[in-house]
Amino acid sequence: MTEGKNVPNSSADVPFRSKELRKQSLIQHTGLVGVIDEGTKTIGFSIYTTPDFKEIAAHRVELGVISSQDGWYEQDPLEMMASINKCAEEAIKQLPELGFSSSDIITVGITNQRETTIVWDAVTGKPLYNAIVWKDIRTSSTVEQIVAKVQDPNYFKRRTGLPISTYFSALKIRWLKDNVPEVRQACREKRCKAGTVDSWIIWNLTNGALHITDVTNASRTLLMNLETQNWDPVLLKTFAIREEMLPSIHSCSEVFGKITSERSALRGITLSGILGNQQASLLGQMCVKPGQTKNTYRSGCFLLCNTGDKPVFSSHGLLTTVAYKLGPQAPTIYALEGSVSVAGHALSWLQQKVRLLPDSRDAEKYAEAVPTAGDVYFVPAFTGLYAPYWRQNARGIIIGLTQFTRKNHIVRAALESICFQTRDILECMHQECGYDINKLHADGKLTTNNLLMQLQADTAGLPLFRSQLMDSTAFGAAMCAAQAEGIDLCKFEPEKRYYENVHYDTFLPTTTEQEREERYGKWKRAVERSLGWVIKQKKTRTHTEENYRMLSSLPASIFLISTFAMLVHSLSATVKS
Q1: Which residues form the Carbohydrate kinase FGGY N-terminal domain (predicted)?
Q2: pLDDT tens digit string along 203-256?
Q3: CB 57 within 8 A of CB 91
Q4: Which end of the chain lies in a sparser environment, N or C, as judged by fewer CB atoms within 10 Å?
Q5: Per-domain boundaries in the chain
């Protein structure tokens, strides 16, 4: 296995700048940048120095999820704000030991879980319902109603880059209006506000003075027109949502205003950056040129490919989204996005459900105990397959077992399944974006697994660059906030080869093209065998004939019963007489 190293002159052409060049590319200011990182599972606040963007202080807490029904996922908006305030307070407490104080924090950026939707009362500032999380599927019937109306789930794709899906905010807002009396009443009285998590955070931090979002979060609502970057009147009418409910759309990097909440340790500090979390990761990975691609490896995977200043619309189920817009006058940069629904979750399944692993973190050790997966392939289609297959009737399979197969082979096959699914999406991105994808940037918790990283390089046939930050989301948001006009803590110059702030561990392919294609071909065959597993039950001929016999016997049954009743009545009448 190739050990991860920095390789400045590799075929991936990743620019690494020297300290001298770094100094030339940055304005010589001193100051700190804070980042609110609101994820699905954790909330954190990080503090970075500039211009070197070193994280010097941080505090993180877990965020609970409420699931009252199967497929329903909610979070408490008040818990979110309490956690954000707590994290900021605890991180700032660490500064004096480092020779800094809260007054050294010049600006704050925000990065957040996308699509998750909150509605609240504009008068009281209180939430009208829990936040509906991005993966919640309660809006399935609403989706069916809308699709039945427009006759095509991709009807709005040219406007929004997105299909009509439970995933996006428009469906969640519509469901809240239709099913929650408090929301319906607030809408009638024109005091209902709605937005993604960033909007809720900013509303609270500014005591209701700002109701805003950025283009990356707005592009995930199914309500923003990708071309105009405004709320689309046709979409608003389709989903019966008033524009007055929604936040105004801004760029990702500009001076939005100051934090005024007395509950926040950040009071008096400027807000100047907003990015959805996967877009922040793309920026933090320095994927700023068309064709540059990153993958975040967690329980699932999120792949984004920079497509430049022109949106690319996919015919393979990939999403078209805004990558970033670094200023009101800056060009809008777009991306293609694809996701792997089961990545690290497959390892958790091996640990918790089938007990092949004592701990999912031991996957590398178990998989390295065998040189190959022994021709075993694991397709983890627990709830179907997504891009590029989009087959909800697929189910998971483990295929290629022999009498010599050990649990180590299955664990290794699970790691390889993550790599194969990533390659599936990379193949689509390469076909549709028109750019050569000659490297893959990686971050996320699973990237600590060196074997997985090497397998990914071998499977895709691409150099893989693992960010030493592991999770570059907060860094991307910090850079976005720091470079805003009027803040100017750094100068973002992607056109120069020495702009890189991040160092990488590099994994180079060690397989031949023939080996890669042979293994990928077998993966495709395994996928084919997983398709069509869920079949809607149909009445068999035998079952239908049985039903017919039963139904045809009903008149005779009724005749016999009625005859018996008449006989009893006749006998009773005779006795009485």
Answers
A1: 33-284
A2: 999 999 999 999 999 999 999 999 999 999 999 999 999 999 999 999 999 999
A3: yes
A4: C
A5: 31-277
